[in-house]
Amino acid sequence: MSGDDLWYWLLGRLDAKALPFVRAWDHPTLSEFIGAGAGAMVVIGGIAMVVLLTWMRWWRPLFLDWLTSLDHKKIGIMYVVIAAVMFTRALIEAVLMRTQQSLAINAPGIVAPEHFAQLFSTHGTIMIFFMAMPFLTGLINYVVPLQIGTRDVAFPLLNSISLMLTAGGAGLVMVSLAVGDFSTGGWSGYPPYTGKAFQPGVGPDYWIWAVTLSSLGTTLSGLNFATTIYKKRCPGMHLMRMPLFCWTALCTSVLMIFAMPPLTLATALLALDRYADFHFFTNDLGGNMMNYVNLFWLFGHPEVYILILPAFGVYSEVISAFSSKELYGYISLVLATMAIGVLSFTVWLHHFFTMGQSADVNAVFGIATMTIAVPTGVKIYDWIWTMFRGEVRFTAPMLFSLAFLVTFVLGGLSGIMLAVPPIDYVVHNTVFLVAHFHNVLIPGLLYGMIAGYMYWFPKAFGFRLDERWGKISFVCWVAGFYLAFMPLYVLGLGGMARRSQALFEPDYRPWLIVAVLGAFLLLAGLATLFVQLFVSVRNREANRVPVGDPWDARSLEWSIPAPPPEYNFATIPHVDRRDVFYWRKAEESTYRAAERYDDIAVPKNSWIGPIVGFAGAICAFGLVWHIWWMAILGLVFAWVAVIARSFVRDTHRIVPAAEVEARERRWLAEVERARPIPRRLEETPQNVGLAEPFPAPVPA
Amino acid sequence: MSGPQLRHVGLNLTGADTLEPGEAESSLYGFWIFLMSDAVLFALLFAVYGTQLAATAGAPGPQDVFEIGPAFVETLILLTSSLTFGLAAIAMKYDRTRTGLVVWLCVSLTLGIAFLGFELNDFATMASKDATPDRSGFLSAFFALVPTHGLHVTIGCLWIVVMLAQIATFGPDDRVKLNLLRLGLFWHFLDIVWIGIFSVVYLQGVLR
Questions:
Q1: Is B5 on the interface with A (CB under 8 A)?
Q2: What is the pLDDT of residue B4?
Q3: B36, A286: Cβ pair inside 8 Å?
Q4: Is the pLDDT of residue B11 over 80?
Q5: Mean pLDDT value across residues B81-102
Q6: What is its EC number (chain A) (predicted)?
Q7: Does B15 reside within a domain?
Q8: Number of domains into which chain A is organized
Q9: Quick one: average pLDDT of A111-140?
Q10: Longest Cα pair distance anywhere in chain A, in angstroms?
Q11: How confident is the model over A264-284, as a mean pLDDT?
Q12: Around Cβ A374, how many Cβ atoms within 10 Å?
């Protein structure tokens, strides 16, 4: 065996050129330095984290209290942490791209074309798969079991495995910064460009396996949530009594179950093309890239609603709580949600109107697309009517909801324009499209996730977030959005192609400069969110809400302490109507000790989730670099762990009834001491989470 | 036979007092959902196969490579294994000894392995005729669809082995029974998929 053979056997295609630092040494250009800087950030960040964990002696709690935990609440929080980390990276990439475009008008700018292509590919991939998906999965994980009155999801271990697979995929994307390159094929990875003939390197392989890990995790999450919502509701919690967030979570779960397999298949077939010389999407020997496009968007369009529906759920909760009013048109909101879920599978072709169908086919899909505006419009009116004559408070989550209402309608209108095939022919592949989908996803997903984070934060951690920084952040996010994306509508109509590394039309310059200012403002929005978190943690003693109901809200999650005990409910609630907690507050029949308390079984921690996630990531890394022993080892290790776990019988531990009762009584004593506050004192330290009953409940 | 039942759709088992109420129900329900997701995967593989049927690109086409004889034998073997798995499930419910259960599981396992043997032989025959996936879009689609089913059968066989080990370790306790019910669903599901493959791939390929 020669030295090269041994190297290939051990390390596959990995060599020194894979490291961005070596590349920057060889070709000292600004673009390579930016790449090396980003790689260095990953390395330094990793080392800093190891040092911090060691210094603070946090390794044990990290693993024993968090990573191995099967508690749906902790898993939810970890999802949101992943989302926050990945969001930071992808937003910085966005700012870099905007900067490049504003500088590169008849000039080279700061990043090379290859580098720029990697930036828009990772930006899109991360924002969809590793920011939006973990964020909404985290919120659903945290909130849904509390809202339906259960102690955990249906499959706690599977939940941990889903989380860790997603984390493994996210880790792979981060590793690609420091080792090798990422794909240049965009977040949708269209072959044949992402095939072996055009991109023989590791880029598309990183994309394929990161997305595959995440989509497997998401399929399992969907399955888990759907089973939880169908089978684990507390007595009396009929489907039509669930809070609307649960309905949107259910619809999103159903979409995950049906829409993730097309993605898994599309990436798997692309991998077969690349690894085993199959001919699914190649230009020659009977390959047909339209199959990929159809498979991808069979996933891709429902995915849009996977992203948006949970945010709709958040808005329903937030608007109702901060208007002190029952949600207007509950049944119509449920029906609209489900209608959107069904329709989402009938419109995928509008993503490629220009790719050769007949005019009739395009017309059918165009009309189907416009149909979605009807249930969505219903929802908008329902939310507006919910506020009507309510006691509306302009807290930060409510402000995000209001900004959503206006901004999302604008995005929807440009969507209606794009749904008309002749218009689509004119503006497709321009930044008009980029403006459109950011105009729906930023209000329709991001604002909702931020609002949900601020709304449920006091429940999760026991203290409120700083309102002032929340409002500053709100201003940045909204002003930043309009400055960054409204110019793109103009530029798109002016014919500026999307994903352009360099531009040759000086008239674009003023609009691009406005857009880059907007991008920096958006980055400030994220920074202020972190400042808000920091300030709130520092002032947490002044903002505690131990009683657990800071917003005088309506659903069951607010009826328990903040933060909730591991078992959520000391006694499983019985529900006899919608918004049950609100009406019990009005009747003063809440905050009572139960007649008796029982032992509660909670799942023991398990290492299986972290092991499977790590082994999955190892397997994926081996596949990317053709290190076959590593790939096989990872795969075998993951399965052996799962099979070994099936032999474990001792999976639960008991919280004794006495402990449950003692804890509950301590909390009830705290409720007794607390002073109920009216809504106008909501943002003051006097708010300890006990609401003064609303004078006269206003019917819808 | 008294005691609480494992309540869910399908074959309910008696004497399941070690499980939490509703646990069996939600476990099996979750597995049905997983199967639906898997069914979507197969449906799409069939769709891709359909679109690639004519994309032979000068390589051997369906008439040149498919042999109905072995495919028919494979069908008989797999359908019989479904019957024997059903008998295993009935033995699990009514037979107080574990002999019947173990015997029928072993028979199903043997049939599953025999099926895989025949299938691999089919692939080898095709390879000997130079019909490999790198030759054409059609052969790519074939070698994605049929081996994906084969991979599922392999996982099913592995699962039976694991279950035999669990029966040896724990006896047929409630968790083992629950696992066996899920394995049964999986096994029967693979039969349904195979009927699709036999009809759409082999019959259509030979008869056209």
A1: no
A2: 47
A3: no
A4: no
A5: 90
A6: 1.10.3.-
A7: no
A8: 1
A9: 96
A10: 85
A11: 96
A12: 12
Helix ranges restricted to H, A494-627: 509-538, 580-586, 608-625
Residue B19 has pLDDT above 70, yes or no: no
Q: Are A258 and B40 in contact (CB < 8 Å)?
A: yes
Closest residue by Cα to residue A316 from A247, A237, A371: A247
Sign of CA dihedral B197, B200, B203, B208: negative
**Which residue, chain included where needed, has tokens 């690894």?**
A275
Asked if residue B201 is part of any domain, the answer here is: yes
Q: Measured between CA atoms, how close is A261 to chain B, in angstroms?
A: 5
Q: Does B14 map to a domain?
A: no
**Chain B: nearest CA to A288, how far in angstroms?**
8
A518-559 confidence digits (pLDDT tens): 999 999 999 999 999 999 999 999 999 999 999 999 999 999
Q: Which residue of B has its CA nearest to A283?
A: B137
The answer to whether position B47 is within a domain reads yes
d(CA A621, CA A627): 8
What's the pLDDT tens digit per position in A592-603?
999 999 999 999
Cross-chain Cβ contact B136/A286 below 8 Å: yes
Give the range of the structural domain holding residue B137, as residue numbers without chain letter: 23-207
Q: Tell if the CB–CB gap between B137 and A288 is shorter than 8 Å.
A: yes
Cα A189 from Cα A194, distance rounded (Å): 6
Query: Does the residue A307 lie in any domain?
Result: yes
Which pLDDT band holds residue A586 (cuts at 50, 70, 90)? confident
> Average model confidence (pLDDT) for chain A?
95
State the smallest CA–CA distance between residue B74 and chain A in angstroms.
26
CB neighbours of A153 closer than 8 A, spacing ≥ 6? Answer: A72, A141, A144, A145, A159, A224, A225, A227, A228, A232
Q: Is B17 on the interface with A (CB under 8 A)?
A: no
What number is the ipTM of this complex? 0.94
What CATH number does the domain containing A282 carry? 1.20.210.10
**How crowded is the C-beta side of A321, counted as CA atoms within 13 Å?**
33
Our CA-based measurement puts residue B22 at a distance from the nearest CA of chain A, in whole angstroms, of 8
Residue A150: pLDDT over 50? yes
User: Which of B137, B162, B170 has its CB closest to that of A279?
Assistant: B137
Are the beta carbons of B33 and A226 separated by less than 8 Å?
yes
Q: What total of structural domains would you count in chain B? A: 1
Instruction: Say if A160 falls within a structural domain.
Output: yes
Which chain A residues are Cβ-neighbours of B134 within 8 angstroms?
A: 276-279, 285
Using a CB-CB distance cutoff of 8 angstroms, which residues of chain B are in contact with residue A277? Answer: 133-134
Q: Which residues of chain B neighbour A287 with C-beta distances below 8 Å?
A: 55, 137, 140
Residue B178 sits in a domain whose CATH number is: 1.20.120.80
The whole domain housing A520 covers: 58-606+651-681
Contact A646 B140 (CB under 8 A): no
Task: Compute the distance between CA of residue A508 and CA of residue A107 in angstroms, rounded to an integer.
Answer: 13
pLDDT digits (tens, 9 = 90+) for A300-340: 999 999 999 999 999 999 999 999 999 999 999 999 999 99
Is B72 an interface residue toward A (CB < 8 Å)?
no
In a domain, A81, yes or no: yes
In angstroms, the Cα distances linking A267 to A144, A164, A172, A209, B103 are: 31, 20, 16, 8, 41
Asked, for residue A502, whether it belongs to a domain, the answer is yes
